[in-house]
Amino acid sequence: MKRALVCGAGGFIGHHLVSKLKSLGYWVRGIDLKHPEFEPSQADEFIIGDLRLLEVTQLAINQGDVVDEIYQLAADMGGAGYIFTGEHDANVMHNSAMINLNIIDEATKAKVKKVFYSSSACIYPEYNQLDPNNPKCSEDSAYPAAPDSEYGWEKLFSERLYLSYYRNHHIQVRIARFHNIYGPLGTWQGGKEKAPAAICRKIAEVNDGGTIDVWGDGNQTRSFLYIDACIEGILTLMNHDYLGPYNIGSDEMVSINQLVAMAAKAANKTIQINHIDGPLGVRGRNSDNDLILNDLGWAPQFSLEAGIKLTYQWINSQLNA
Ligand code: NAD
Fold this sequence. Notes:
Blueprint: E1 3-7, H1 12-23, E2 27-32, E3 45-48, H2 54-62, E4 69-72, H3 80-83, H4 89-109, E5 114-120, H5 150-169, E6 172-178, E7 181-182, H6 195-205, E8 211-215, E9 221-222, E10 225-226, H7 227-238, E11 246-248, E12 254-255, H8 256-267, E13 272-276, H9 290-296, H10 304-319
Parallel strand pairs: 1-2, 1-4, 2-3, 4-5, 5-6, 6-11, 7-10, 8-13
Antiparallel strand pairs: 9-12
Helix pairs in contact: 1-7, 2-4, 4-5, 6-8, 6-10, 8-10
The structure holds nicotinamide-adenine-dinucleotide.
Nicotinamide-adenine-dinucleotide is lined by residues 8, 10-14, 31-34, 50-52, 73-77, 95, 99, 118, 120, 178, 180-181, 194.
């Protein structure tokens, strides 16, 4: 039986990943500052602990038999309202870098067979994402580096950290750059929620014909990947010989206004938009999936419309709970 450690197992993607690994027959230890918010974890062991602390990281990796695989998803992060205001920059950089420095060094010492690291589309340079209809996010466009947030800079630093341990110490690492993952059991209120969840919540809160606030003119573009497809992408990458970094995202690009229309359709409501000032991030972003399709044969198998419908239904049920 393979033994996996999921770091960030109380978070959105980590929690879904634990469930998937359990269904595949893994023994799983989760670690996080908190338990999952919306349902209990299926992990065999769940440590409430702070991965910024070396002794906690050592315990998570070494307690009992050393784990075979680590899935590193722990980070100090949130949506645009958390990352792009600048107020959390020092915490984001310090906390996430500490976690990654501890994990890869201890994993190497413990001779862990493989480590997955979750990077982000936020590493891509702002200068390639100014045209909302033609953003460039191929993996090789990451340099010359110019991320538009400190969150992106930390992710880029940590990608390089994991790759340098691979080169110098031969530990197997796998790196993905996630592009806006969404779905049920994700944060949907409180300031750390991302655009799909925030829009679904706002629509669920108003009556048919109501108005919701949207940051900016709504013509900024993004792509959104449903959680199940993300988990498939992680496992595909872990079971392959290539290291990455690879984009794990959807290439179904929409404007935020189109996303609102899709969520309104899922809610069966007519919705008006009130455009207000707010933190925005880059003008356009879309996952370029050519490389991962070519190397690993992976492409997402879930339409945005179907995913938004499931997400809306879940958030609506939470509001009415
Ligand atoms: P999340 O915030 O739901 O989960 C991250 C978890 O890490 C949280 O539960 C948090 O408590 C935990 N954590 C933070 N600091 C910790 C510490 N010091 N010790 C232990 N645990 C700690 O985020 P998510 O959406 O599940 O994202 C998972 C990973 O994927 C993150 O690294 C994130 O940067 C990356 N990512 C996510 C997206 C997305 O759209 N969700 C996009 C790009 C990259």
